[in-house]
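A quick aside before the break. I want you to see a complete sequence-to-structure record at least once, exactly as it would be stored in a machine-readable document. Don't worry about memorizing anything.
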Amino acid sequence: MAPRTRAEALSRERIVEAAVGLLDADGERGLTFRTLTERLSTGPGAIYWHVPNKGALLDAATASVVATALAVEAAGSPQDEIRAIALGLFEAIERHPWLSPQLTLQLSRSPSSSVTPRIFESVGRRVGALGVPRTTWFTATSALVHYIFGAAGQNAANSRALGLGVDRAEYLRAAAKAWGDLDPGEFPFLRSIADEAREHDDREQFLTGIDLILAGMTGAGG
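That is the input. The structure line, written in tokens, reads:
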């Protein structure tokens, strides 16, 4: 009975928390049952008691982080709550570099997993409250969810690509100058937005995209 007692003393929550820490530090390759047992100072049997394999552990870590991001109190308008959910997911994906590929993988591999339904339910419930036609709920919710995944994932990838020691403001100034120096006949649009790109804030830009989608929904609903 001793192994079971130790296994039960080691909660699933502690295991998932430790897994998230390992994922944050070294990505998916850094999460193994060996590194997990070392961090928790336990044996593999105690962990297998709660989580059968690495795939289940990744799913549990993803679900835990997403649950925190979706924890929005119903205290504002549906638009406000959608913005809060979107920003929660944006910040979670930014803080946890491994999260974006896991969400993409789960969405394509297992639409009925614990994470995908919760995200669609959380966003879709507010979409329904906006008063848009019921026949557009699926399309409208999908547009929001895919925008969140895509924009937040790309922003996180950009941050990682810059790496440590790279000044973001200097990088944007250099990029804006490069766009401003393009041939005006071939790239009139990029030249026109070069100054805006240099000064933009990632979160504000992301939320502006959410607002544009919401404006299109409510306008169509009206």
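Two observations worth writing down. Residues 1-8 have pLDDT under 50 and may be disordered. The CA atoms of residues 87 and 207 lie 7 Å apart. We'll return to this after the break.
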